[in-house]
Design goal:
Strand order of the largest sheet: 1-2-3-6-5
Oligomer: single chain
């Protein structure tokens, strides 16, 4: 006796419906499927003058601008971006130990996506009084719950690579600091995770000059 066979077309159609339904169910609210994923986006480097604040660390002539965390060792250690055009001449606020010199400064110059080139005299960070940026959330709470934000936070270092600096959840938002974003990563994050979930902040900012 032959067993009954389900028509191939019916089975295939049912499988497709299940897959589509599962895909739609797992998409974050407010996200879109036709936008590039966060990990596939590369921000375009700025064309004009930019500014940044951080620790300038010179180890035996190899100078870098550290925009993220700095290890509290002596001398300090950090992982930054190459800094060219830098000189310690007439720069106050520096400390030295062995062949390492460092200090915290506001710097201005240009950024090509890999290297920051200093073109203006730096300002000691202790004397720097920047304009407070506007709150991009408008004071509204985000839509992310604790578990969702923690899961996204785990993914970001791999997706953003060396440009990732830090992140923390607050008031339903995941605040993410990166070296540079021209808005491309924010747009991709909104598309992938929802418009009320992630705030991406660029450590390097355009000055308008």
């Amino acid at each position: 006796m032959r067993g009954l066979r389900r028509p191939f077309g019916v089975a295939t159609t049912a499988a497709v419906v299940v897959l589509v339904a599962a895909s739609c169910a797992s998409a974050p609210p407010g996200s879109t499927s036709d936008s590039p994923a966060l990990g596939s986006v590369t921000p375009v480097p700025p064309e004009g003058e930019v500014a940044a604040t951080g620790t300038v660390l010179d180890a035996a002539g190899e100078v870098q601008l550290c925009l993220g965390a700095v290890a509290e060792s002596f001398p300090p250690q950090c992982s930054g971006i190459p800094l060219e055009g830098w000189t310690w001449d007439e720069v106050e606020g520096a400390e030295s130990s062995g062949d390492v010199t460092w200090g915290a400064y506001a710097v201005r110059g240009t950024y090509d996506g890999e290297t920051f080139t200093s073109t203006q005299p730096p300002i000691m960070l202790a004397l720097y009084d920047p304009i407070r940026p506007e709150d991009p959330t408008g004071g509204k709470p985000g839509a992310g719950d604790e578990a969702t934000l923690a899961a996204i936070q785990e993914e970001l270092p791999d997706k953003l690579g060396e440009s990732y600096l830090s992140s923390y959840p607050q008031d339903g938002w995941l605040w993410v600091d990166v070296v540079w974003d021209d808005g491309s990563w924010q747009e991709a994050a909104d598309a992938e995770y929802g418009v009320d979930t992630i705030v991406i902040r660029s450590a390097i900012t355009e000055t308008g000059g």
